[in-house]
Amino acid sequence: MALSKIDVANMVTGIIPNDSTIRRKYSQPLILNGDMSVSQRGTSFSPSGAGTIYTIDRYSYDVTGSGTGDATITQESDAPASTNLRKSLKISPDATETLSSGENIAFATPLEGQNVQVLGHGTSSPPKATLSFWVKSSKTGTYCVQIKEETIDDESYLLYEYSISSANTWEQKIFTWTGNTAHTLNSNNTMGFRIVWHLAVHSDDHASATTSWTESTAFKATSNQVNFFDSTSNDWYLTGVQLEIGEYTSSTLPPFQHESITDNLLRCQRYFRSYGGGDAYEQVAVGYTTGAQGSTFIDYSSPVMRTAPTMSLGTINTWKIYSNGSGYTCSGSPGASDATPRNMKLLTDHASGATAGQGAMLQANNSTAARLTLSAEL
Fold first, then answer.
1. What's this model's pTM, rounded to 2 decimal places?
2. Runs of H (alpha helix) within the chain
3. pLDDT of residue 13
4. Would you give the DSSP letter of residue 188?
């Protein structure tokens, strides 16, 4: 049997052969947590009111204008058969809503600019890209997905319609486009790209479906977009989100690129991290005391977070500083100093008795409700 030819040049230079189905085997997925398996914040959320909240890791729920978007969002053990997917995201309205001017309700996943340079925006011949996802809903009709450039001048979008034709049935949707030659995406840690699944859009933001990059910063959907919030009996599921470089159809699309739960979680922890919530005496950080105030140093250098995070300790008395054989219940308003993408110093008041300079530990105060979170979301 003849030996296969070895590409010595590529072995030396580390270049992956220019074939997308081979190249993707050596790279991480462009979409983080596309299988909805990581949900550090919990498995059920009840948003109500305008704004952006993160639910399942790397997915935001966005309500603009004066809308309430009152809903329940859950992580479900429901996924399309024969895909090896196991989890999905589900939304159910808790109240009906008639849209007012400026109101939009959507799900989105934002992508860091430096992670999407492979899309080739701003070059003379950007490659094609293909988005695919699995969706199902009890409400049939036309929905929209918007592909958006972000955080640049003259940011632009593409807009596609997709149809849910069979109620409560998983369907795969696939869209292919060519990158925008007019704009270069920011190659830094800010948001560079976003995929938006619309659920309800006021007529102020209606636009025609387009495969040409169209300038606008706004959420846009066509006039055919259903109002998913017209009934509390509606539900909508999403999973298996993948973004591939190249042009694919349902018969040529590479299989979903499953990551180990360890790799998936570590990539998500670049943007959000949660400590506590497990053992009633869980120890999450070490440091030292400064007398009446406890100063506890926490190191989260692996993986490095996207930017210096904001910190929350939740209910402060669910924590204590444990020092020199004694535990001191935390009180007052927790704070943070010297925050970097790698570490920070937590500051908490605690009962008197500790001695300045003693080693200390931040520990759950006999409470599984103790939760420290660090957020560096886009």
1. 0.91
2. 8-13, 20-23, 261-268
3. 34
4. S
